[in-house]
């Protein structure tokens, strides 16, 4: 869907302009054959007959053979007008189809219109003396219509309609009712919606355009558009919400057609518009963002923009293990294995710093000892306690900490993230250290040896990283631990550092 600039409007009565043959291949653009059952055709045919009724002319009888002649020429024009140099002076056949309609006619005419909805097309013909005279001529008894919608070229998406009309002495049409000046042609859903919004969109800048997915149509205006489908009705599309919808492919994208108008008056001056496949939310603080699928369901359960998460501040984006969407107050992640999880509160800032590595959440935030919380992710965890703040726990260091009993073990909560040093990394805990070297793996330091190690500068001091765990050196609780540049001994027989 795009705004169309009305560049040419053609509807010429037959027998006036001599036509020359076009070299374009005579192939159908979209509609290979039209019958009165076709909605676009029936609307046009009914509107023509409504105008005839007003002036006392009998309504036309639908003549399928004439319709086939009209469709034949519409197919030809649909192919020919794909050439931007097409000469519109050749838009009519030499005899305007008079030699091709069924024999025996005493009068015939041909009207051609380009890029109009049925209501607009008939209205245009009614405002052109030659076309109006042909359409309302009381001699006419039979008519047939054909049209195409070119799929490429300069007129892609426009409707090109050919209406052939004729008089046959043997045709006995329905009796024309008395003229009724008050009889009005039926309005399209878009026209009715335009009347309801009372000029809020400004002037129209395109005709009604048909042929959209699932029988839809649209019309562009100075300040937006009206969009219609039989399933959703006609709705306004404007501003930042419309721009984002356009970015997702209009009605052909994941959102489909608008299901409501834009609804304003939300918290913080926000607005939303619902679509077949979800919604778009906008606020001055967050901008416009999509809301779809199961992530939307989870957000809804928190209270939408009035809940703890507030408005979405991003689109849905891929992360390790699934997808995520960021909100003013948190993140919702989705994975096939863990479903939807919310990251918020104490975990949020640290997660946003490390989300590229951690990936999706695989658990909810869970309370643990001393007022703490943890939350597991695709590639690690976040731990929080009032004493230590929120820290990252990943990889080999996390595996060693798990072996000590996590926060319930001798080390307690992590009090830092991983810190690079000595060709490896270390992490501080309430009760000690865990270090990791690629060649010797990881070790933890705690207790009395840990106190001496800390006093000697810890992992960045003279001793370097531990290269072993604690090991006994004799009876009575004497232990030692080896380091890159020394040994620490602790116990009843003596405590100290040897370099």
Tell me what the structure shows:
The strands form 7 sheets. The chain has a 4-stranded mixed sheet. Helix 1 packs parallel to helix 3. The chain has 499 residues and is of the alpha+beta class. The N terminus is likely disordered. The chain has 4 domains: 186 residues, CAP (Pathogenesis-related Protein p14a), CATH 3.40.33; 88 residues, no CATH class; 102 residues, no CATH class; 103 residues, no CATH class. 21% of the residues lie in helices and 28% in strands. The N and C termini lie far apart (77 Å).
Report how far apart the termini are.
77 Å
The structural domain count equals 4
CATH homologous superfamily annotation of the largest domain = CAP
Q: Order of strands in the sheet with the most strands?
A: 1-3-4-2
Strand count, sense and barrel status of the largest sheet are: 4 strands, mixed
> By helix and strand content, what is the structural category?
alpha+beta
Averaged pLDDT, please? 87
What's the architecture of the largest domain, going by CATH? 3-Layer(aba) Sandwich
């Amino acid at each position: 869907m795009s705004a169309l600039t009305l560049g040419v409007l053609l509807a010429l009565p037959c027998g006036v302009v001599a036509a020359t043959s076009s070299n374009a291949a005579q192939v159908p653009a979209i509609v290979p054959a039209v019958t009165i059952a076709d909605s676009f055709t029936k609307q046009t045919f009914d509107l023509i007959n409504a105008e005839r009724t007003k002036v006392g002319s009998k309504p036309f009888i639908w003549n399928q053979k004439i319709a086939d002649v009209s469709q034949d020429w519409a197919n030809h024009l649909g192919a020919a007008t794909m050439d931007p140099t097409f000469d519109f002076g050749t838009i009519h056949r030499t005899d305007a189809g008079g030699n091709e309609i069924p024999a025996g006619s005493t009068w015939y005419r041909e009207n051609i219109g380009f890029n109009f909805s049925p209501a607009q097309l008939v209205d245009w013909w009614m405002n052109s003396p030659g076309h109006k005279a042909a359409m309302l001529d009381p001699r006419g008894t039979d008519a047939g219509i054909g049209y195409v919608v070119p799929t490429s070229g300069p007129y892609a998406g426009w409707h090109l309609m050919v209406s052939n009309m004729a008089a046959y002495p043997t045709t006995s049409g329905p009796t024309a009712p008395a003229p009724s000046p008050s009889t009005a042609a039926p309005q399209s859903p878009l026209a009715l919606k335009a009347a309801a919004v009372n000029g809020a969109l400004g002037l129209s800048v395109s005709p009604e355009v048909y042929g959209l997915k699932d029988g839809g149509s649209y019309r562009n205006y100075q300040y937006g558009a009206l969009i219609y489908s039989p399933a959703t009705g006609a709705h306004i599309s404007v501003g930042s919400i419309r721009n984002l919808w356009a970015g997702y492919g209009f009605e052909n994208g994941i959102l489909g057609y608008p299901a409501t108008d834009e609804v304003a008056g939300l918290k913080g001056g926000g607005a939303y518009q619902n679509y077949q496949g979800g919604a778009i939310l906008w606020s001055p603080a967050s901008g416009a963002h999509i809301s779809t699928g199961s992530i939307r369901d989870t957000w809804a359960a928190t209270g939408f923009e009035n809940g703890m998460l507030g408005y979405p501040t991003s689109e849905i984006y891929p992360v390790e293990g699934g997808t995520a969407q960021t909100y003013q107050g948190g993140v919702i992640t989705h994975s096939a294995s863990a479903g939807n999880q919310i990251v918020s509160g104490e975990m949020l800032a640290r997660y946003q710093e490390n989300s590229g590595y951690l990936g999706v959440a695989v658990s909810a935030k869970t309370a643990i000892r001393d007022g703490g919380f943890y939350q597991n992710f695709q590639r690690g965890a976040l731990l929080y306690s009032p004493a230590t703040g929120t820290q990252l726990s990943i990889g080999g260091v996390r595996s060693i900490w798990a072996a000590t009993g996590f926060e319930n073990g001798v080390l307690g909560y992590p009090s830092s993230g991983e810190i690079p040093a000595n060709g490896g990394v270390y992490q501080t805990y309430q009760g000690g250290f865990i270090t990791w070297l690629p060649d010797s793996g990881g070790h933890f330091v705690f207790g009395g040896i840990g106190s001496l190690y800390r006093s000697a500068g810890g992992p960045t001091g003279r001793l370097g990283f531990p290269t072993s765990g604690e090991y006994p050196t004799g009876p009575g609780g004497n232990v030692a631990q080896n380091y890159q540049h020394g040994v620490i001994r602790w116990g009843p027989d003596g405590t100290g550092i040897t370099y």
